[in-house]
């Protein structure tokens, strides 16, 4: 029997995958509901966005929104983080959200400009509790054993033989050239760029082949919105979950100091400018909320579509999403 391509008007994802997707969403909600979290729904469209050097929000011109008195661009959110943390400052308690987020220029095997993210904030949770909750959720959704834990510098050394904090950018460039990751050691002079390249191309594909792996203690320069580790301030209390070589989640022991957040946002804005990217306003209602006071918490974002992929044994996002951007 000849196989014919699926008409673009119909879903390319098998219906059994979409039914399993719905079941996983129910299980995720039950997981958090049973632990006393409140499900919330925050704006997808906002006049502000979290500033990240590498993540580009999708911009909507202000005159297309038609909101009187607001000039400039609006942004489809790359994460509900800023609004969820404003709710934390409002006193709502532990919260979670499951819904769409957007990132420009991302389409491929594991990416789509619109995707589904689960994000949560566990009040009064320390670093260890944040790791444990993510591990338990992974077990609930994917029936996995307890995750192995490894610090970022150790995983980096085990793969490359390099001591992360004793290797400068030029040495990393030589290693990448010798290992055929680049055509020239002049590809960049930025230490983090080299580290990210090596991690994504050489370290990550080896992670979690048998059971999930939690990589902890990222370099302080990649802290984003996480606290620095007091015992080793070269590292941040940031963690990511990997399974079968796929990055599933990114979590922080949350930074509470608004002044430090502003400093990091200004650095990210400068980096975006040097990279030739569009500017995103540094001023943000989240900074005002942090001045009021955000309670201590661990927060985490989980790529829900990727979880569904692993649960279905799928190889691409379009096998678990009804209509990806090329068919929307």
Main features:
eight-stranded mixed sheet, single chain, three-stranded antiparallel sheet, globular, 35% helix, 328 residues
Describe it for me?
This protein is an alpha+beta fold and 328 residues long. It has helices spanning 15-33, 62-65, 81-90, 127-142, 152-160, 169-178, 191-203, 258-274, 285-292, 304-312, and strands at 38-39, 45-46, 58-60, 74-76, 95-102, 114-123, 148-151, 213-219, 235-243, 246-253, 297-303. Strands 1-5-6-11-10-9-8-7 form an eight-stranded mixed β-sheet, with helices on both faces. Strands 2-4-3 form a three-stranded antiparallel β-sheet. The model has no long low-confidence stretch (mean pLDDT 94).
Q: Give the spatial strand order of the biggest sheet.
A: 1-5-6-11-10-9-8-7
The radius of gyration computed from the alpha-carbon positions, rounded to a whole number of angstroms, is 20 Å
**Class derived from helix and strand content:** alpha+beta
How many beta-strand elements?
11
Mean pLDDT: 94
The arrangement of helices and strands along the chain is HEEEHEHEEHEHHHEEEHHEH
In DSSP terms (H or I, runs of 4 or more residues), the helix count works out at: 10
Fraction of residues in H or I helices: 25-40%
Distance between the termini: 29 Å
Question: Largest sheet, described in full?
Answer: 8 strands, mixed
Beta-strand level of the residues, as a percent range? 15-25%
Global outline: globular
- Runs in which pLDDT lies below 50 for 5 or more consecutive residues are none
